[in-house]
Amino acid sequence: MVESKKEEKKNMKWWQLSLFGVGCTIGTGFFLGSSIGIGQGGPSIVIAFVLAGIATYIVFDSLAKLTASHPEKGAFRTYAKQAYGRWAGFSIGWMYWFAEILIMGSQLTALSIFSRFWFPNIPLWLFAIGYAILGLFVLLVGAKKLTSIENIFAVIKLAAIIMFIVIAGAFVFGLFDGVEKLHIPSSMGELFPTGFTGFWASLIFAFYAFGGIEVMGLMAVELKQPKEAPKSGKVMILSLVTIYTIALALALLLVPWDVFNTDESPFIVALADFDLGFVPHIFNGALIVAGFSTMVGSFYGVTTILVSLAQDEDAPSFFAKEGKLAVPVPTLGLLIIGIAGSIVMSLVLPEKIYTYVTTGAGLMLLYNWLFIILSARKLQKEKIKGRIKYYVGIIFLLAGISGTLIDKTNRTGLFISLGIVGLIGIFAFFMNKRWKKEAKGH
Questions:
Q1: pTM for the structure as a whole
Q2: Where are the alpha helices (DSSP H) in 42-142?
Q3: CA 255 – CA 215 distance, rounded (Å)
Q4: How many C-beta atoms surround the C-beta of residue 438 within 10 A?
């Protein structure tokens, strides 16, 4: 994003970046996607969330250390370029742009489905267009106000999860009547009811719940003290892992794991048998806030990365041309075309095919995370402890990616993601030849 007012830059405090990260991260991946993970791994999904949280922390810590020593507007793509050459910056930038554009359609569709909880007769496409226009308006208010808005959203989402923890905890510990039996796994077979392969396949859904941390890397250049970036990530990810695992564990204690379904949030299912008439409405509101704020985070990410690509001549230069708006008009135009195409795809394509596409896009974000760790490993002079941390992160990410081979639905998404990456790779190969010729010409 390009700010027209210089004074709006570099005035963010570390705790504001932490809240911004929570705002960009807690979304439909946790509130809805975790139910798919429960279906695949049973109660072991809680362990999957802890492992995904550790890997996410390693990714963010790698990015934050690079940001602290060299604050760069292009963040992860700039560091990939410094570490591996221009082809890497080009590939990572476009991979991120495509992934986020494709994910936006699923975010808008999810938002529309949640809204029909209250307005069942309004068509999905009308809600999708409404949320897209509202999201673009929030994007155009600029980075400073965007941070404030995301912080408000973050507080609402945290409050919703904490409210669930308090209510569910009161039932689990017997403060409220109504629980006949707690579903505590008493053996490895009960903890891993679908076996190790089911647990392995569920890992990807735990990772999805942490998607969005790379936007923090893009926003970290706004910090007053860039060296505080690692601290903001540590606080944010530790908070997320704690509330994610407690909330999921409580839900799984209240309801047998095989009762959860992919059409409803596991937290609404967990409290469905209790007479709490207001809770579904509050959670539905939280789901809408969650989906909307992660969508706005995606808007910020794709516009920032496209401006960065254009500034480095990895995209046409007019995408970086500053105007009166917070985002260059051509970049905004391409975002709108991307959103429109994504909405049409999500509403026209059969549900399964669209699920494959969004799964593939989600995997592309994990490839980006791999590149972040690999870039930090090459650019940062770390001691043995730091290098081991990088390898642990790489192993966990590869476990999450390879787990998609086990499940039929996810397997198709994996092949789609590899196809898109291959396409970007072909472009990068031909561009690399051109860059070499240009370098010889100079």
A1: 0.85
A2: 45-69, 76-84, 86-115, 124-140
A3: 35
A4: 10
